[in-house]
Amino acid sequence: MTLHIVTSIIGLFDVYDWWMIVILNLVQVVYTGGRIQLGSTKPEEGERQPYSILNCDASREKILPHVLFIQKIIRRRPFMIKSLENVMQRQLQSLELYEQVDRLKLAIFTALTFTQKLSGLPPENIFSVLLKDSLVAKGTVLGFITDCFREYLVENSFDDLIALLKRAKIEDRLLEFFPMQKRTIEAFSEHFSKAGLAPLVEYNKKKVFEVKLKELKTYLTDQISENADMGEVIESVKQRCKEAKLPDADVVRTVWEALMDAIQWSGKNQQQNINLALRQVKTWGTLLGSFTHTGKLQLELIYTIQTYCYEDAKLMKLFPEIIRALYDQDVLAEDTILFWFRKGSNPKGRQTFVQGLEPFVKWLEEAEEEE
């Protein structure tokens, strides 16, 4: 009896394997017109049917019916999605064996499969095979993903494209699709700008800036925590900012956040937290002053402090004292403080902070009148 059950189970597996082979071949026929030899684009012996992706024109109108056909099959037989994935991976791994026009067809097909949202097709498994050194080195992959992105954006928004890249886990790895000698921000911008994908250029710049700012914040936090030499820290930060071309306003915000992150806050002692924050500002005020050399940047610093104090309950009452301390260290100019007091645009906690700063502002105004 046991032997009969085991034999039946093995028989089921044989049937399942047979069906998988049939399905794999079916998807391959729709894709290429017939079975192809492993590791090549050469057809195996036998008649080739003309109604396939590689045998039609390189246009959305001609390729979309094939995608919709596969979509109907997969809706009835969901397990077939794995066969489609396998075929797509095999073809993309052999991109360099195809002519440019056929690579364009594959790019259009790939974009349409994600536009039509074929259930269960994981973008990570599709795009990851493109990061093959030999494909990347020849520039084959770069041309493919450029065509793929352009086709995807015909019916989808840029936010949809970013969501797709995130699901594929490549939103931070776009430079890796460039040959090593062209793997620079400048080359990235030039290539995708010419391809009409300017939003992708701006997105990548933002991502690069975010990474650089995060690295800067980590560096600063460590240096401040270790009480490193002020002059050396300032020079190092300036050099990093210059090399990465970081926006001044973002640098100001990052320096402030690093100052606060380096504090060993007390869990419950409110007064101790206030003292720690003020001591940090007074100790490292010169660092802040090195990156707030204009009234606009000083105003950005005030807005940053305002938001920080508003979002952190333990510092809510500390805002006026921080502003006064930075004024005493010549980090914030009188004109900037008065402008914020009278016309500041950040609404977060503004009424409370204006009331708290009023005595100091009154003192500034009186001192100005006496002069």
From TrEMBL:
Domain W2: 206-371
One Pfam entry name: W2
CDD domains: W2_eIF5C_like
InterPro entries: ARM-type_fold, eIF5-mimic_regulator, HEAT_5MP1_2, W2_5MP1/2, W2_domain
Source organism superkingdom: Eukaryota
Gene3D superfamilies: 1.25.40.180
Cellular component terms per the entry's GO annotation: cytoplasm; membrane
Similarity field: Belongs to the BZW family.
Name of the molecule in the record: W2 domain-containing protein
Lineage, uppermost ranks: Eukaryota, Viridiplantae, Streptophyta, Embryophyta, Tracheophyta
